[in-house]
Amino acid sequence: MSGISYNIVRSARRRTASIVIHPDNRIDVRAPSHLSDSHIDAWVASKQPWIEKKLHFNTHSRRQHQPKTFRQGERFTLLGCNYALSVEPSTRRQVILNGYQLVCRSPLPDHREALRKQITAWYRQYAARYLQQRVEHYAQLTGLTPTLTGIKNYRSRWGSCHIDGRIYFNWRIIMAPPHIADYVVVHEMCHLQHHNHSPAFWQLVASILPDYREAKKWFKLNGLSLDL
């Protein structure tokens, strides 16, 4: 036995096995349907040093998410800047930026879940407007134009590009610094031309954002922290 806890995901279409280690240290082994449990366990055991290295990185190097309490003065991040939450009782719901304050007016100022939903909705709306502007900016530079741009609540990806030209972004990237969020925009827009991660794809990304590797590294280290 390997001594490592993992979940097996079998597929008749698969020809080889692979190991996926999620940021929260869950491990999936994706394997062909014909592969026995004992064969998989022996193979996982042979990969134990590599797995332990990845688990150690997740635990000790990644910046983890700290769930928000939605209390007065708590720090919220938008485009890499921190804003102190100011909750104000009000008969109507409204979220605005006032200097370096994130002002949330609510009829339920002491209800954490209500504040979470209200502020999350505001983040999503802000992300939709901002990212649309960035798409339009890079469309002018590259000539690459999506058929539709939208916001999604992805849990394990920052964006997606569909074969019909639709592009969706994870609203949480609005918390990252502007040049980091731009990387996701450029990455997905480059998929309009290259629907893969071939050398040609990365060459196109580099021609638009020469320092894209910095952004990839930033997401690897800080991506988990982008949440409310």
TrEMBL record:
This is YgjP-like metallopeptidase domain-containing protein. PANTHER family: UNCHARACTERIZED PROTEIN YGJP, UTP PYROPHOSPHATASE. Residues 15-220 form the YgjP-like metallopeptidase domain. InterPro entries: UTP_pyrophosphatase-like, YgjP-like_metallopeptidase. Transmembrane segments: none annotated. It comes from Mariprofundus ferrooxydans PV-1. The lineage of its organism: Bacteria, Pseudomonadati, Pseudomonadota, Candidatius Mariprofundia, Mariprofundales. It comes from the Bacteria. It holds the Pfam family YgjP-like. Gene3D superfamilies: Metalloproteases ('zincins'), catalytic domain (3.30.2010.10).
